[in-house]
Amino acid sequence: MIRLTLALDAMGGDFGPAVTVPAALQALAYHPQLELLLVGSPAAINPLLVKTDSVLLERLTVVPAESVIASDAKPSQAIRASRGTSMRIMLELIKDGKAQACVSAGNTGALMGLAKMLIKPLNGIERPALMTVLPHRQQGKTVVLDLGANVECDGAMLAQFAIMGAVMAEEIVGVNNPRVALLNIGEEETKGLDNIHQAAALLRSIPSINYIGYLEANELLTGKTDVLVCDGFVGNVTLKTMEGVIRLFLSLLKSSGDGGRQGWLMKLIKRWVKKRLARQFGHLNPDQYNGACLLGLRGTVVKSHGAANQRAFAVAIEQAMQAVERQIPERIAARLDAVLPKSD
Amino acid sequence: MIRLTLALDAMGGDFGPAVTVPAALQALAYHPQLELLLVGSPAAINPLLVKTDSVLLERLTVVPAESVIASDAKPSQAIRASRGTSMRIMLELIKDGKAQACVSAGNTGALMGLAKMLIKPLNGIERPALMTVLPHRQQGKTVVLDLGANVECDGAMLAQFAIMGAVMAEEIVGVNNPRVALLNIGEEETKGLDNIHQAAALLRSIPSINYIGYLEANELLTGKTDVLVCDGFVGNVTLKTMEGVIRLFLSLLKSSGDGGRQGWLMKLIKRWVKKRLARQFGHLNPDQYNGACLLGLRGTVVKSHGAANQRAFAVAIEQAMQAVERQIPERIAARLDAVLPKSD
C-alpha cells in the first residue's frame, strides 16, 4: 500500500476545527493508506480528538500554527502577515516535501497568492486556475474552470486553462479526447468578448485539443462538453448561480406541501415520494462535489467551500487524494510541454 | 377603456408566426383594450388567422414586411441591411407613434442596435440595458439587468442600470424604496472588478438610491435585494445558468422513477405528488417570466426569448402592456433627470 500524506488547514472556513477535524477522522477511517497533518491550534484541535480510536490517531499529526488568516481579510495584506498562519504552514509542508497535497477552506485570494508564491506555477502557466468537476444529466461529468482565481483573463490564460482542463477530463473523469468549449453568450463566432475570441483562435491551432467552440451557460449541466472554460469572475458567478438554484429546489422539495389538511396516509406517501426524488437529485447537491483544485502549480492545492459541512470537507479531501494518485501536476506539466510553443 | 396598441415582430424567433400568431390571438382574447399590429409576411401570417373569430380580428392588423433578420446574423451587417425587415418596420411603428410598445423574439444584437438608432436613448443613458423580473423564494420579485445588451460596461453605465432598475422595482413590482445591489464574487469591498467598484462609489453618492452593496450569485433567488445589477455578459450567463438548472430539475421531476416495477396505485399516487410539486415549482419555470425589457429608450421594446413557445411569447406581450400602462420610459426619464448631475 502506497502511503499518501495530506496537509489540512484545520482552522480555515466558517466552522474551523468543528468541521475539519471530524472530516479528517472520517477520511482516515475510509482510507487506510492516508496520513494527515492537521495544521492549526492544538488547543482547538486536541479536545476534538479525545474520543478517537488510537489506531486512527497513529496516522494523524497535529502541526501547531499560532494564527489564522481571516476569511474576509484582504489577500495582499493577509499574505504579507501570513507567517505562522495555519494556511501558510500547510503550504510550506508541501513545499518542503512533507505532504503531497493540501486542503483549505480558508480565504481564496490568500490561498491563491500564497500557493503561487510557495509552490510556484508550472512552466507555461501565467496564473493557476480553480477547477471543479460538475455532474451532468447524462451521468457524466464536466470539468469547469476558472472558478474565481483570476477575475480578469487574457486569451492566452483561457487557452492554458483549457489545456489543464483537458488533462483533468482525461485523468480524473476518464474521457478520451475530451471535448473542450469556451463559455460564451452565444454560439456564433462574433459573440462575446475579445479575450474569448483570442482563446478560440489559440485553441483551434492546437491539434491535440478537441476544441468544439462556444457554449452558452444553459448547457452547463447538459453534458455537451467535457471541459468548459471561462474567466474567474464568470466562473464564480456561474457556479454560485447553479448552487443557489439547486439549494432552492432541494429546500422547496423538502418543505413543499407540508402544511394543509391531509390524512396521515397521504402525508406518509408524499414524504416517501419526496425522499425518493431528493435521492435522485442528490448527485446535484453542491456538497457532493465540494473542493476546487488550484491547477497549474507544482503541487496539489484544493480549496474547499468556506461554508462546507463535514461531508463536503471530506469530499474535498478525496479530491486532493485523487489528484495525487493520478499525478495531476506532473501530467499537466507534460501536456503543457508538448503543446505550448517553445521559448528559445 | 384606454386603447393600447402594440406592434409585434411576427417573424422573429425560432418558430416565427407558428408561435407569435397564436400568442397574439391569446393576448387579444384576454385583453379587450389591446390592439395588435402584426408585422411580417402576410403569406405566412394569414393562413393562421383563417379560423379566428372576426371580433378578435377587428383589433388585429397585419403590417406587411418583405424580409426577416436571421437570428444568427451579425448585428452590424443585419442593421445595415435592415430596411423592409419585420423588426425594423415594427420599430418604425413606435417611432412614428403608431404603436406604444413592441415585442420581438428576433436577433438580440440587431434589436438593440436598431432600437437605439430609431427610438433613441433617454437623456443621461449611454446604452440601453435588457432587464427582466425574476421570481424569488419569498414570493416576491427581483429586477435583474443587464442581461446581454452590453457585454462590457463601465461604472457609470452600471450605475445608470441601477437607477433604471430601481424605477422598475417601484413601478412594476410595487416595492417602496427598493434595495439595489451589484452582483459580485464576494461581499467585501475589495472583491471583483474595477467597474463594479466605480459603480458602488457612484451609487453610494445618490441619496435616493437604496444601495445595499454587493451580492453573490447564489443570492439570485433568495430575495435579499429588489434590484440586481451586472454587466450584460455576466447577466446573460447568470440567467442562462439559472434557466438551465431549472429546466433540468423540471425534466428530472417529470421523468424520475417512471420505470421499475410498481403497482398501479403507487404509480398513480406518485404521478399526483409529482404534478403537485411541478405546480409548486411552476413560478420558477422560465416560460413564466419570458420577455426582457430594453430599458433606457424613449419607448418600450421587449425582447422575447428566441425559443419562446406560445405561452412564453404571450407573457412577453403582457410585459410590454405593463410597461406602457405604468409609463416606464417616462418615469425612468423623470428619475434620471432628478438624480443625474446636470451638464451645463
Please provide a written account of the structure.
Two copies of one chain form a homodimer. In chain A, 44% of the residues lie in helices and 16% in strands. Chain A has two domains: 1-125 and 296-324, 3-Layer(aba) Sandwich (Isopropylmalate Dehydrogenase), CATH 3.40.718; 126-287, Isopropylmalate Dehydrogenase (3-Layer(aba) Sandwich), CATH 3.40.718.10. Chain A is built from twelve helices and eleven strands. The first copy, chain A, is of the alpha/beta class and 344 residues long. An eleven-stranded mixed β-sheet of chain A has the order 3-2-1-4-11-10-5-6-9-7-8, with helices on both faces. The longest helix of chain A has 24 residues, at 232-255. The termini of chain A are far apart. Chains A and B meet through helix 9 and helix 10 of A and helix 9 and helix 10 of B.
Low-pLDDT runs of chain A: none
Order of SSEs of chain A: EHEHHEHHEHEEHEHEEHHEEHH
Spatial extent as radius of gyration of chain A:
21 Å
First-residue to last-residue Cα separation of chain A: 43 Å
Strand ordering within the main sheet of chain A: 3-2-1-4-11-10-5-6-9-7-8
The number of helical elements of chain A comes to 12
Overall mean pLDDT of chain A: 90
- Secondary structure class of chain A reads alpha/beta
CATH topology of the largest domain in chain A: Isopropylmalate Dehydrogenase
Number of strands of chain A: 11
In terms of DSSP E residues, the strand content of chain A is 15-25%
For CATH, the homologous superfamily of the largest domain in chain A is named as Isopropylmalate Dehydrogenase
Function (chains A, B): Catalyzes the reversible formation of acyl-phosphate (acyl-PO(4)) from acyl-[acyl-carrier-protein] (acyl-ACP). This enzyme utilizes acyl-ACP as fatty acyl donor, but not acyl-CoA.
Subcellular location (chains A, B): Cytoplasm
GO cellular component, one term (chains A, B): cytoplasm
Family (chains A, B): Belongs to the PlsX family.
